[in-house]
Amino acid sequence: MLRSPKRTFTLSNVLYIPHITKPLLSVQKIYCDNNVYFKFHASVFYIKDLSTKTMLLSGHSNDSFYVLSESSTTTISQICWSPCISATTNQWHRRLGHPTSRIFNLLVFKNKIMCTSRRSLVQCQTCLLCRSLRLSLRPTGHKITAPLDLIFNDVWGPAPMFSSNSFRYFIIFIDAHTKYIWYFLLVAKSDVFSIFQCF
Ligand SMILES: [Zn+2]
Q1: pLDDT tens digit string along 66-75?
Q2: Could you tell me which residues come within 8 angstroms of residue 161 by beta carbon, excluding any fewer than 6 positions away?
Q3: Is the model more confident about 5 or about 25?
């Protein structure tokens, strides 16, 4: 029997060897008897509940073995915030919910998190988008009374991935009166002019 704050693990049909210095556990046995699964990393491993995915137990690797000691039975919050789980600065930034660089550097300074490299944080696009402000347009005094009086257009791209037909940009034309939208896909940004002429 193996206890953790969240679960007591049972093992049936174990082989008893009286003089063995370190008991060995079969991953497959724990898996089958307790409805859990394992996640192995180079320096750490986790045991999670198969249906709820809740973290139940963690341990560390030592001398090519994954060790489940008494200290492994840590609480869930300790496991989640373990500084031993190293990651890149950008991975930590995303995991911690996009903190500011001042808070992030403080966590690194106090050894609360362990980064795989000393590289400073690469500018995060999500942070830039979330912290940018949208300016409202001033009234122009231009009155639109009929379709095609005024057309707005915008080009978007490049997309982070190619579409199945190798498109990475699109251009839209919006009729200000009817709000009708024309939408054209582009392989390259240089195609904008030819689309513009056709339109
Ligand atoms: Zn961010």
Answers
A1: 887 655 544 3
A2: none
A3: 25
For 149-175, b where at least 16 C-beta lie within 10 A, e where not — what string? eeeeeeeeeeeeeeeeeebbbbbebbb
**Residue 182 CA to ligand 1 centre (angstroms):** 34
User: How far does residue 89's CA lie from ligand 1's centre (Å)?
Assistant: 11
| pTM metric for this prediction | 0.35
Q: From the CA of 77, how far away is ligand 1's center (Å)?
A: 23
pLDDT of residue 112: 75
Residues 21 and 75 in one domain: yes
Give me 45's structure tokens: 């491993």
What is the residue range of 193's domain?
Answer: 151-198
Q: How far is the CA of 173 from the centre of ligand 1 (A)?
A: 32
Are 60 and 109 within one domain? no
